[in-house]
Amino acid sequence: MIFEEAAGVSKYKKRKIESINKLERTRENMERMQDIVDEVERQVNSLKRATKKAEQYRDKKELLQAVEVSVLVKEIQEFTEANEVIKQNLFKIDAELASLETSEGVYEHELESKRQALHELDRDVSKAQENMMAADS
What we know:
Helix content: over 70%
Structural class: mainly alpha
Shape: rod-shaped
Strand content: under 5%
Number of domains: 1
């Protein structure tokens, strides 16, 4: 060591050791950085997969909503058409009911006329029977 100091080599050896230590720390730091980079890459890949799944979910949800809207529109059209048919049938029934009510009025009038005629005939028959009985006596 004395010779190294005399030759000025110890200073270079010390620098060499410091440089080696510094290189070792740098290598360790690089390993830690690589570990961090690897972890970040795993997280990025995980996020990419999650993003892809979210996009697929969104696309499927939009498709489902479009199908649901289409089904609802079709059902509304069918209900509207059925409602129109029901309205037309109701209109026909109302017209038929009005016609029947008119016919009923006519028939009731005829019935009342016939009842009166029958009543008159009954009176005539009763009178005729009374006259026959009176004539027989």
